[in-house]
Amino acid sequence: MNANNVRYMWQDVRQGMQRNKGAALASVALIFVAMVLVGSLLLARLAMQDTIAYVESQLSMKVYIEEGFVVEEVAQVLEKNTYIEKVEIETAEVLLDRLSLFFIGKEYLLDSFSNGAMQDAVKFQVKDVQLMSQIAESLGEMKGIEKVVYPQQMAEYLASALEKIELYGLFAIIFFFVIAFMMVYIAFHLALYQREKEIRVKLLIGANPKIVRFQFLLEGLIIGLIGSIASILMVIGIYYFVFQPVSETIQFLWKMDISTFLFVLGCQLFCGLGIGLCASYLSTRKLIKNV
Amino acid sequence: MIHLEQVSKSFEQQPILHNINMHIAPGEFAFLQGRSGSGKSTLVKLLYRELERDTGSITIDGVSIDKLAKYELRRKMGVIFQSFELLERKTVLENIVLAGQILGRDPDKMEAEAMRLLKRVGLEEKAHVLPTKLSGGQQQRVAIVRALLNKPKIILADEPTGNLDPETASEVLMLMRELREEEGVAMLVITHSQHLIETFAEKSWILKEGGVYERQ
Predict the structure, then answer these.
(1) Rounded Cα distance, B212 and B56, in Å
(2) Hey, which residues 66-85 in chain B have their CB within 8 Å of chain A?
(3) CB count, 10 Å around CB of B209?
(4) Region of poorest pLDDT, from A47-61, A155-169, A231-245, B170-184
(5) How much is the pLDDT for B89?
(6) Which keywords does UniProt give here (chain A) (predicted)?
(7) Does A205 lie at the interface with B, CB-CB under 8 angstroms?
(8) Does A289 touch chain B (CB under 8 A)?
(9) Nearest-by-CA chain B residue for A5
(10) How far apart are CA A134 and CA A238, in angstroms?
(11) A146 inside domain
């Protein structure tokens, strides 16, 4: 293939896309929607993955003491457990003191907690993170302990929410992937139908079928490229206008370095190009084979 | 130049061509005659491999056509169709240079060559007109120019006068014969017209019941 071939091919690609403007635009739009979904879900998944891992790695646990039991006695029992260390008592008064730091000038808001509404608690660390839920379960059944709180619970909530988002998101992605793929496939079929004679004549007068097919692949690539670049811009917007403000407000929630962010954008580009390329490849396969 | 030996072709076990032997020498103006359905077009399609033969061999300049990629083979030939096969959305000049574009030829040289040939066939002024604005005879002349652009060794013309009135058909064939001499290209013309063969043929065959017979 020489420079003239490339020039002629580019001319044909431009003319082809202009002739099928409507179908090409619809294909671009569907690839855009599918890729925005892919990008946003990946962004959420990867940003929260670190948070979940961090929360899961925390070894601290807190138990609230049942009314009528003495916090010191419970703490002594816990200290004897070989899987537990750094036991620390947190009485209701200490907790109220700490809370009052957040309500300076409005301490009256805490009045309702001063009549025994707050419970004493014991804080401690578990030696092995693998044993967290097991220990929490056995402590929950222990006399004198009303409630067990540990970070894995939070991680489980987050993971469960994320799982649901992922599941529904996956369905949405598959749906839009299929629709986008079908749209590009139909657009190319339409283009092929309109240009059937042109392709046939070209092949009969000696055009290399690979070059003729490459022209359609190039159109598919361009459609995929435009759709995915638009989706990349959208996801960059989502990142700066949604993820970052949330991240500044709730600092522990999102965490994403630039390489992970680029990976997400790369996935969008790769998938968008893939849809355009595969659909155009499959739609051109039969016609070019038969001449 | 082109040599066919024991070439056979069947469709759904119905023999169309049976043990065909033919030879076309360089620069020859040869004709193949036959009734509708006799297998004339099938034979031409076997030559440029739009169809594949069942048995036998076809060589071009001593090389089996099976050893060439289809597009390489077709670049050695020019093909003219009964229905002209010009693209309606492209102008006359664009239709002609299409043949050069697929080879990646230089656009300026190609256009100059196309204009020279268009002038030769009397259509220089129609270069920027759409083919639909031309008469059947003019469209066929454009198709002849397109077939000649890449200087092929042989032109296969599949009923080039099939859609033309007798007078225009004679004019087109006369032009083809002149161009054959000027451009030094062999031509195999498929026709069912006895009159055209008697007027123009240097060599001719008749296809009958699957076999080919050379006329003396």
Answers:
(1) 14
(2) 69-72, 74-75, 77-79, 85
(3) 9
(4) A47-61
(5) 87
(6) Cell cycle, Cell division, Cell membrane, Membrane, Transmembrane, Transmembrane helix
(7) yes
(8) no
(9) B104
(10) 40
(11) no
CA distances, A272 to each of A169, A182, A234, B18, B216 (Å):
17, 13, 14, 53, 66
> Tens of pLDDT along B145-204?
999 998 898 999 998 888 888 888 888 888 888 888 888 899 999 998 888 898 888 899
Instruction: Report the chain B residue with the minimal C-alpha distance to residue A196.
Output: B87
* Statement to judge: residues A260 and A188 lie in one domain: yes
Contact status of B150 with chain A (Cβ, < 8 Å):
yes
Which single residue is written with the structure tokens 């005659």?
A: B33
Overall number of domains in chain A: 2
Q: Which amino acid is at B182?
A: E
Are B71 and A203 an interchain contact pair (Cβ–Cβ within 8 Å)?
Answer: yes
Residue A251 pLDDT: 65
Distance CA B101, CA B93 (A): 12
Contact A202 B102 (CB under 8 A): yes
Residues on chain B touching A3 (C-beta within 8 angstroms): 104
CA distances from A149 to A139, A153, A249, B132 (A): 10, 7, 24, 84
ipTM: 0.87
Stated as kind and residue range, the H or E segment containing A197 is helix A196-204
Contact B87 A209 (CB under 8 A): no
- Rounded mean pLDDT of B135-142? 92
Q: Which structure tokens are listed for B75?
A: 């670049």
List pLDDT tens digits, range A50-66. Answer: 677 666 666 778 888 88
- Is residue A281 within 8 Å of residue A192, measured between CB atoms? no
Domain map (residue ranges) of chain B: 86-151
Residues A284 and A163 in one domain: yes
User: Domain of A17?
Assistant: 3-55+155-290
Residues A221 and A279 reside in one and the same domain = yes
Q: Judge whether A1 is closer than 8 Å to chain B, CB to CB.
A: yes
Among A49-63, B15-29, B104-118, which is the least confidently predicted range?
A49-63
Distance (Å, whole) CA A64 – CA A123:
9
Question: Would A200 be classed as within a structural domain?
Answer: yes
- Could you tell me if A110 and A235 lie in one domain? no
Establish if A101 touches chain B: CB-CB under 8 angstroms. no
Token digits for B82?
């009964």
- Determine whether the interchain pair A5/B75 forms a contact, defined as Cβ–Cβ distance below 8 Å: no
For residue A74, CA distances in Å to A139, A142, B102 come to 11, 10, 88
In a domain? residue A134: no
Quote the mean pLDDT of chain B: 91
Tokens of A135: 């220990």
Residue B176 Cα distances to A133, A201, B157, B181, angstroms: 93, 21, 10, 9
pLDDT at A288 over 70: no
Are A50 and A66 found together in one domain? no
Q: Which of the four pLDDT bands, split at 50, 70 and 90, describes residue A20?
A: confident
